[in-house]
């Protein structure tokens, strides 16, 4: 069929096949595509209204095991840059959103293995108990799938529990391109195959939720695969009518593993125009100004879009890949009205709520998008210790946090710092190395004998050396197994002062002190003589005095530390 015949078919309300849509996408002049898309849009929305929503895009965690190659946002488990937002932080963000006239949170995040279903339920309940009418547009299909795998529950059961906790609707993120060849190349097949993504949406629609559908294009897919993506969405919409809108955004390559180049404005406009023509059963189509900027976003309104998306307030994912466009409500409304449309505020169900809020009351201007966390803020939310973690790194960190919190509720524990990086830990290690070196080389040399290890005057020297080596191995094992539990590094909430107790606590570690004494004792008695034994004894007395002084200071500064020490003493009573 010729392009003109296809255009006539669209104008007559006919439905394009995949092959016809591909023909139009590849061959129709851009202005004709725009014209057709605009006509379809006008039929659906004859009143020249363009809607937008005031909400906040909150990414509750950037820790993710999926590792999609197009993503610059995620951090692997155990990364020092990984974060999980606390309930109080999310509540604060909601307060700010309400102040700007918003009524919804778009809540999405990485596939964090250490956040179980209960964490999401508690968060949703907390939000709903404070703000009953505030909407939670949360958890894209791959996240729902991830939670269901963690909980070993079916997707419908997970959706049911999340809805009971307060979930209102599901965003269409994580769709990328719904073709498994593409998903495999982008390393996102395992997070959700095309069928799985569609399956979660089907369950959500059946559970009565409305959702959006997205497409991220411009990576490794072909034009035919973009059409296949849209076609799959159209088929599901025929079945459930659960989608409210389609949103296409172009891949942002900066800081990603995949690299590449960004789609041009014309490619973007042709893509959304084709979507408007092909997705004849989708009520709305959003302009993606977040990836394309305000000007292309405005142009989208004549290429089929009838919605300017979200004022957004905060954005982290696209920004990480290099796009940081920002428009507050005043700017969005200016773009809509300047294009000849009437701007209306809406909710997630695309129900009009009214005109621009800034014309009703004063709202603060928002000249740049907020971020999830300030750079370098590694605070760990207090409530996390209440949930079981799956990753080894996080299990250890939470166990330590639990110990710290037992010590004092006033101590907010930042990410764990290993004992050897503590304020005084380095000096302790240096001191130990020097002392051990002196024990090996000093007294015997001073007494006129040869320095170790040449020659070997006594067989006992070999035995002594073996004992010390074995002690060293067990010492390391002791640090690895027991060290972290015995080396608390509490940070007062203001982060101003670091308290390091572990290095001195370790002097009295059972494995460490026992074997060191045994090894050095053997060495001293049979090889170096009583002088070395006295030397080792003095070393321990001095270190012990230092440890006790440190402890007294801690007990004085943090009274709850005393309780912690009692717990440790009960654990290893023979050492204290
Ligand atoms: S796109 Fe989402 S799922 Fe993929 S790595 Fe990034 S945060 Fe994880």
Describe the structure.
The chain is α/β, with parallel strands linked by helices and 576 residues long. Helix 3 packs across helix 11 and helix 6 packs across helix 9. Helix 4 links the parallel strand 2 and strand 3. The protein contains 22 helices and eleven strands. The longest helix is centred in the last third of the chain and has 28 residues. The strands form three sheets. Strands 9-1-10-11 form a four-stranded mixed β-sheet. A four-stranded parallel β-sheet has the order 5-6-7-8. A three-stranded parallel β-sheet has the order 2-3-4, covered by helices on one side. The chain folds into two domains: 381 residues, Alpha-Beta Barrel (TIM Barrel); 181 residues, no CATH class. The chain binds iron/sulfur cluster. Iron/sulfur cluster binds next to loops.
Q: Strands, helices and their partners?
A:
Blueprint: H1 3-11, H2 18-27, H3 30-44, E1 49-53, E2 55-59, H4 87-99, E3 104-108, H5 117-130, E4 135-138, H6 141-151, H7 155-165, E5 169-170, H8 180-185, H9 194-206, E6 210-217, H10 223-240, E7 243-250, H11 265-278, E8 284-286, H12 289-300, E9 307-310, H13 317-320, H14 329-338, E10 342-346, E11 352-354, H15 392-407, H16 425-446, H17 459-481, H18 483-486, H19 502-507, H20 510-528, H21 530-557, H22 560-571
Parallel strand pairs: 1-9, 1-10, 2-3, 3-4, 5-6, 6-7, 7-8
Antiparallel strand pairs: 10-11
Helix pairs in contact: 2-10, 2-11, 3-11, 5-7, 6-7, 6-9, 9-10, 11-12, 15-22, 16-21, 17-20, 20-21
């Amino acid at each position: 069929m010729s392009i003109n015949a296809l255009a006539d078919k669209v104008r007559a309300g006919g439905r394009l096949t995949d092959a016809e849509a591909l023909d139009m996408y590849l061959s129709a002049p851009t202005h004709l595509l725009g014209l057709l898309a605009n006509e379809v849009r006008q039929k659906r929305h004859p009143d020249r209204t363009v809607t937008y929503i005031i909400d906040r895009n909150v990414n509750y965690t950037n820790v993710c095991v999926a590792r999609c190659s197009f993503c610059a946002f995620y951090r692997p488990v155990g990364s020092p840059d990984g974060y999980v937002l606390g309930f109080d932080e999310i509540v604060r963000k909601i307060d700010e959103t309400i102040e700007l006239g918003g009524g919804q949170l778009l809540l999405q995040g990485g596939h964090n293995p250490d956040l179980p279903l209960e964490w999401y339920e508690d968060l949703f309940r907390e939000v709903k108990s404070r703000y009953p009418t505030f909407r939670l547009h949360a958890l894209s299909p791959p996240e729902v799938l991830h939670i269901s795998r963690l909980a070993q529950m079916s997707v419908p059961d997970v959706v049911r529990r999340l809805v009971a906790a307060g979930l209102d609707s599901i965003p269409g993120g994580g769709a990328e391109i719904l073709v498994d060849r593409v998903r495999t190349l982008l390393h996102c097949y395992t997070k959700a195959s095309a069928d799985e993504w569609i399956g979660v949406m089907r369950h959500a629609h059946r559970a009565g939720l409305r959702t959006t559908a997205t497409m991220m294009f411009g990576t490794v897919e072909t034009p035919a695969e973009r059409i296949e993506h849209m076609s799959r969405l159209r088929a599901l919409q025929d079945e459930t009518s659960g989608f409210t809108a389609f949103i296409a955004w172009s891949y942002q390559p900066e800081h990603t593993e995949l690299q590449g180049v960004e789609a041009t404005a014309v490619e973007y406009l042709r893509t959304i125009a084709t979507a408007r023509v092909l997705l004849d059963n989708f009520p709305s189509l959003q302009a993606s100004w977040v990836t394309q900027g305000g000007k292309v976003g405005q142009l989208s309104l004549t290429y089929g879009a009838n919605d300017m998306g979200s004022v957004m307030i905060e954005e982290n994912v696209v920004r990480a890949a290099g796009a940081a466009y920002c428009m507050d409500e005043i700017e969005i409304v200016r773009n809509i009205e300047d294009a000849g449309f009437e701007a209306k505020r809406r909710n997630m169900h695309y129900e009009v709520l009214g005109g621009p809020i800034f014309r009703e009351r004063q709202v603060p201007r928002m000249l740049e998008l907020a971020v999830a966390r300030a750079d370098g803020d590694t605070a760990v939310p207090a409530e996390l210790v209440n949930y079981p973690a799956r990753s080894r790194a996080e299990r250890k960190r939470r166990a330590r946090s639990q110990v710290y919190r037992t010590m004092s509720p006033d101590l907010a524990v930042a990410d764990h710092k290993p004992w050897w990086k503590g304020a005084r830990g380095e000096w302790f290690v240096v001191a130990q190395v020097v002392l051990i070196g002196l024990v090996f080389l000093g007294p015997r040399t001073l007494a006129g004998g040869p320095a170790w290890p040449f020659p070997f005057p006594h067989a006992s020297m070999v035995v002594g050396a073996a004992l010390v080596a074995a002690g060293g191995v067990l010492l390391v094992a002791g640090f690895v197994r027991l060290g972290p539990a015995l080396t608390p590094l509490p940070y007062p909430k203001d982060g101003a002062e670091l308290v390091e107790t572990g290095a001195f606590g370790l002097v009295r570690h059972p494995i460490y002190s026992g074997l060191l004494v045994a090894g050095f004792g053997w060495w001293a008695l049979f090889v170096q003589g009583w002088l070395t034994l006295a030397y080792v004894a003095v070393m321990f007395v001095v270190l012990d005095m230092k440890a006790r002084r440190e402890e007294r200071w801690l007990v004085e500064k943090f009274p709850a530390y005393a309780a912690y020490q009692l717990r440790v003493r009960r654990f290893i009573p023979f050492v204290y």
